[in-house]
C-alpha cells in the first residue's frame, strides 16, 4: 500500500508531498491538471527509468526548464515500510536527461543505492517487472473509458491484453510442446537405458572377473617364462663366449702344430741330407 509520494520538478509539479491514508484514495481534477502525472510518478518511482520509452524520455518527464527532479515513494508491505528515491538530472539546452541516483530503503535504513540493485530488489519484492505492473495494476488515462464502452468481444480482448492472457496462452502452448519434447526425450533415454542394461547383463553373463583372473594368471606365467628365457639367454651367451675363447685357443694350437710339422719336415730333410753326405764320404 502506498503511504507517501513526494515529487519535485516532475511534469507540471514544481513540488508536491502527498500522504495516502488507509482505504481508497481518489484524485480528481479536470483534464490536464496532473492526475496521470501522479500515477506516472508512482510508477517511475518504483521502477526508475525502465518505465520510460524512446517516445517519452526522462527529459519529457522532468519539468521544463529545470535541471534536477526527484521522486520519493513510500509504501508498506507485510509490516515493513519501504522507500524508493529516484533522482534525475536534466540539461534543458541539449534535451538530455538521466537517472543519476536510485536509493532503496527498508524501515528507514538504506538497503542499496545502485540503480541495477534497486531495480532487482523491487522485482524480487513485488514479484513482477514494470511490464507486468503496467498490465495488471496500472491503467493509464483513457484506457478505462475505452474498456467500459467497448463491445464485449473487444473488451475481452483488451482485458486479455492487459492481463497478458495471450502470452499465457503462448506459454501454455510452449509448455505443451516442451512436454511433448520431454516425453520424446524420456522415451529415447529409457531406450538407451535398456540397451545399456542389456550390454551390462551380457558382460556379467560372460563372467568377466573369471576371465580377468585367468588372464592375470596367464600374465604371471608369461612373466615367469620370460624371466626364465632371459636367464637361459644370458647363460647361452656366456657359453658361446667360452666356446669362442676355446676356438681361438684351438686355432692357435693348430697354427703351432703346423709350425712344428714344418720344422720336423725341415729337420728330416736336413737329416736325410746329412746321412747321404756321410755315406758318400765313406764310399770314397
Content-based structural category: alpha+beta
**Mean pLDDT, all residues:** 84
Proportion of residues in extended strands: 15-25%
Q: pLDDT below 50 for ≥5 consecutive residues: which ranges?
A: none
Q: Helix and strand succession?
A: EEHHEEEEHHHHHH
CATH homologous superfamily assignment of the domain at 2-127: P-loop containing nucleotide triphosphate hydrolases
N→C terminal distance: 172 Å
Helix content, binned percent = 55-70%
The name CATH uses for the topology of the domain at 2-127 is Rossmann fold
Give the biggest sheet.
Answer: 6 strands, antiparallel
Calculate Rg over CA atoms: 55 Å
Quick one: how many beta strands? 6
CATH secondary-structure class of the domain at 2-127? Alpha Beta
Strand order of the largest sheet: 2-1-3-4-5-6
Amino acid at each position: 500500500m502506498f503511504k507517501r509520494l513526494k515529487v519535485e520538478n516532475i511534469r507540471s509539479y514544481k513540488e508536491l508531498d502527498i500522504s495516502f491514508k488507509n482505504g481508497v484514495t481518489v484524485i480528481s481534477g479536470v483534464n490536464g491538471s496532473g492526475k496521470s502525472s501522479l500515477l506516472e510518478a508512482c510508477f517511475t518511482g518504483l521502477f526508475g527509468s525502465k518505465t520510460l520509452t524512446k517516445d517519452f524520455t526522462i527529459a519529457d518527464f522532468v519539468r521544463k526548464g529545470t535541471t534536477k527532479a526527484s521522486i520519493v515513494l513510500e509504501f508498506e508491505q507485510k509490516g515493513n515500510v519501504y522507500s524508493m528515491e529516484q533522482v534525475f538530472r536534466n540539461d534543458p539546452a541539449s534535451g538530455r536527461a538521466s537517472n543519476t541516483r536510485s536509493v532503496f530503503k527498508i524501515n528507514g535504513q538504506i538497503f542499496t543505492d545502485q540503480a541495477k540493485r534497486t531495480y532487482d530488489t523491487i522485482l524480487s519484492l513485488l514479484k513482477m517487472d514494470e511490464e507486468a505492473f503496467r498490465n495488471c495494476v496500472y491503467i493509464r488515462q483513457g484506457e478505462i473509458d475505452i474498456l467500459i464502452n467497448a463491445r464485449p468481444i473487444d473488451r475481452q480482448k483488451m482485458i486479455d491484453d492487459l492481463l497478458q492472457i495471450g502470452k499465457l496462452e503462448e506459454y501454455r502452448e510452449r509448455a505443451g510442446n516442451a512436454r511433448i519434447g520431454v516425453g520424446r526425450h524420456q522415451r529415447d533415454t529409457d531406450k538407451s537405458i535398456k540397451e545399456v542394461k542389456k550390454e551390462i547383463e551380457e558382460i556379467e553373463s560372460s563372467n568377466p572377473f573369471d576371465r580377468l583372473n585367468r588372464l592375470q594368471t596367464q600374465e604371471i606365467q608369461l612373466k615367469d617364462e620370460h624371466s626364465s628365457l632371459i636367464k637361459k639367454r644370458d647363460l647361452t651367451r656366456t657359453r658361446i663366449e667360452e666356446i669362442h675363447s676355446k676356438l681361438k685357443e684351438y686355432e692357435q694350437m693348430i697354427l703351432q702344430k703346423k709350425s712344428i710339422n714344418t720344422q720336423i719336415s725341415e729337420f728330416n730333410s736336413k737329416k736325410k741330407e746329412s746321412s747321404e753326405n756321410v755315406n758318400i764320404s765313406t764310399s770314397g
